[in-house]
């Protein structure tokens, strides 16, 4: 068997904190209304001049430093995002230049929305198997404030900005991440129209169908990852869920009878950061000592596409 282990993590978060009380000045809402329906108290938002690239660089440099690696040792760099600074060059290509990655490093962006980071982990595992250098840099990064309509109460209360990074190593004797990926093509429930449509490119979400989708597919995804790995729920040290809505996570925890202490998140302070959500939480758990060497985290993303993805990641 061959696969990945996690060597280091990092985060990049904007300076501006947007509270529920701040949003109540923009739309008809309140702190009580938001927290009871989403679990979110505040989220980070890029101030003028702060960029997607800056968030990525901060997160990537932290992850490299904590992994004890130099940029030239990286063989693959994948950035999961739907809100880069520009359509091209890719955010990963900009990182190649700014970090000093080798010119033969495989660098590209990947858009699987909120599942993107887990998709990128699996992509890195596949690419590193054939790469001359066996270390990968995988990021999830979003500046969702660029595509959020702050007059739409249904969406503006949910989303935040940030970037999370992970440095991974591939070896023949490392365990597979046993990834499970899925897609149910849907252009109605959760979308951003795009620049070619001729209308403002704001997030549109029909909350109830997305909620039902998540509560259905996340438990199935977890069960499939465990079946592939040949382990039980008790063998997982931490469940790292995409931080979309606390009510979704609570429903999944109840459905699978998961220990609540293994499922703590950061949605109250971060909001929904799409592709950045899983790596931001992963970094907090590692830095806080909740995930240690030899332990396993089952990472699960779900969202736009509609997509879902799960993977079992072990700390080196």
What is the radius of gyration computed over CA atoms, rounded to a whole number of angstroms? 18 Å
Low-pLDDT segments, ≥5 res = none
Question: Average pLDDT, to the nearest integer?
Answer: 96
The rounded distance between the terminal residues' Cα atoms is 16 Å
Shape: globular
Q: Give a count of the beta strands, DSSP E runs of length 2 or more.
A: 13
By secondary-structure content and strand pairing, the structural class works out as alpha/beta
Main beta sheet: 9 strands, mixed
The fraction of residues in strands falls at: 25-35%
SSE order: EEHHEHEHEHEHEEEEHEHHHEE
Query: Which range best describes the helical content: under 10%, 10-25%, 25-40%, 40-55%, 55-70% or over 70%?
Result: 25-40%
Total helical elements: 10
Describe the secondary structure blueprint for this structure.
Blueprint lengths: L2 E10 L3 E4 H5 L6 H8 L3 E4 L6 H16 L6 E7 L10 H9 L6 E5 L5 H13 L6 E9 L9 H4 L4 E11 L8 E4 L6 E2 L12 E2 L1 H23 L8 E4 L4 H11 L10 H4 L6 H11 L8 E8 L3 E9 L1
Parallel strand pairs: 1-13, 4-5, 4-6, 11-12
Antiparallel strand pairs: 1-7, 2-3, 6-7, 8-13, 9-10, 12-13
Helix pairs in contact: 3-4, 7-8
